[in-house]
């Protein structure tokens, strides 16, 4: 749409210069042509720049790797959803959903599936106490409004859980693999078991968070 607007605007500018020049003498006409050529050049530069921007955006939505090709259907890097479990704070700052076409050599890693949907949550967990607290957002479970339920794919995820020894934090990406196509998913629910102390006694409630894809 932006490229079309820039193109139409450029045509309108050039047409306006030509129409104005028709009623002027030769010297003014030459000046008008020069201005028209200058405007056309600027418009061409704008179009080229917008083409580059669109190509960059397209590249961001398709990611190639040795494992396969990930086509991102939804991404929100501006989330700021927070929850607490006892002395532990959990922040989810981003979500991404995409369809992964798995390369032949890596099918075994995905139970032989040629296509899977990858849901990635960017998380940060922080222990606000001086005690050692166990909390495992990287072993969380998600459900979707399309009927999926999946535990975190720990092999592909960052270490965001475990024992938090005193006032420390851990952050990274936690991935989940589901079967529903990315385009069909409208909501993702996150469930994390409550925090516990060194004696495995509960010190916090289970965390439940919901993310509507808008």
TrEMBL record:
Organism annotation: Virgibacillus oceani
Domain of life, source organism: Bacteria
Position of the signal peptide: 1-23
Protein name: DUF4352 domain-containing protein
Keyword annotations of the record: Signal
Keyword Signal (UniProt): yes
Keyword Signal part of the UniProt annotation: yes
Annotated segments matching region Disordered: 25-60
